[in-house]
Amino acid sequence: MIVANNFLFALGTVIGYALELYIWIVIVRSLITWVNADPRNPVVQFLASLVDPVTRRMRRAMPFLRMGMMDISPLLLIFFLFFLKIFVVRTLIQLSM
Fold this sequence. Notes:
By secondary structure, the protein is mainly alpha-helical. The protein contains 3 helices and 2 strands; from the N terminus they run ααββα. A hairpin with a 2-residue loop joins strand 1 (66-67) and strand 2. The longest helix is centred in the N-terminal third of the chain and has 33 residues, at 2-34.
């Protein structure tokens, strides 16, 4: 039972850190789109490969996310990641207690 509790605690902690890292990646990618960075830059391409497939699916599923020139799909993605972090991570950590 102790091993299962420790496993759930560790799993919740690792998922929490991964979600936090992805939140920061989404924020950096959003900021990069505002400054028109070189799309051939390897860092820009890497960030785009991590974030753009998710936001593209969100925009396809909910077309209202693009309001004129403003795309709010990264903001909605960040809210969803915070929800996952609070719900999933806290649930796993509380199950480990």
